[in-house]
Amino acid sequence: MTTVDEQDVQTPDQIFPRHKEDNPFKFSNSTLARREKEVIQMQKDYPLVPPIWCYWLWDMNETAEPGEIKDIVDNGKWEGPSKFKNAPNGASKEGCGVYTTEEEFLEAMKKDFPEPPPKLKPKKKKLK
User: Fold this and answer.
1) 21: pLDDT strictly greater than 90
2) 42, pLDDT greater than 90
3) Are the C-beta atoms of 25 and 59 separated by less than 8 Å?
4) What is the mean pLDDT of residues 115-120?
5) Distance between alpha carbon 67 and the CA centroid of its chain, in Å?
6) What CA–CA distances, in Å, run from 128 to 122, 123, 124, 125?
7) Domain range summary for the chain, segments of one domain joined by +
8) pTM over 0.90, yes/no
9) Rounded distance, CA 28 to CA 24, Å?
10) Greatest Cα-to-Cα distance within the chain, rounded to the nearest angstrom
């Protein structure tokens, strides 16, 4: 019979390490906590905006150079048609859009997908 020393035993956390959330901007713990709180508030204020967009916007605002966002808004750098229009994996043929009402979203979807998909009929099994 072999004996096992306590130092040789691994804990489950050592065998299966827990997932650590990415932090590419190297935010401090207090900044991450503030980010989470502010993004939750953004989601309450703008429920139709996808949550990931709220995180992207917050990150952009936090990491931008002073005056960069004001310059983008004042000079209209991001206005106009998207260069990514008609992307193959987009949800809409017209490009990505933010809809303020459910009706607006449904109208856009009707434009892109005028007919519902055909219903598949189950195959009949042949009895022997």
Assistant:
1) no
2) yes
3) yes
4) 65
5) 26
6) 19, 15, 13, 9
7) 23-68+101-110
8) no
9) 11
10) 78
How far is Cα 52 from Cα 103, in angstroms, rounded to an integer? Answer: 22
Structure confidence by residue, pLDDT tens digits, 65-98 = 989 989 888 988 877 766 655 544 444 445 556 6
Cα separation, 123 vs 98, whole angstroms: 41
Torsion sign over Cα 91, 96, 98, 99 = negative
Distance from C-alpha of 38 to C-alpha of 55, rounded to nearest angstrom: 9
SS (H, E, C) the chain: CCCCCHHHCCCHHHHCCCCCCCCCCCCCHHHHHHHHHHHHHHHHHCCCCCHHHHHHHHHHHHHCCCCHHHHHHHHCCCCCCCCCCCCCCCCCCCCCCCCCCHHHHHHHHHHHCCCCCCCCCCCCCCCC
Tokens representing residue 41 in the block: 């508030």
Question: How far is CA 78 from its chain centroid?
Answer: 20
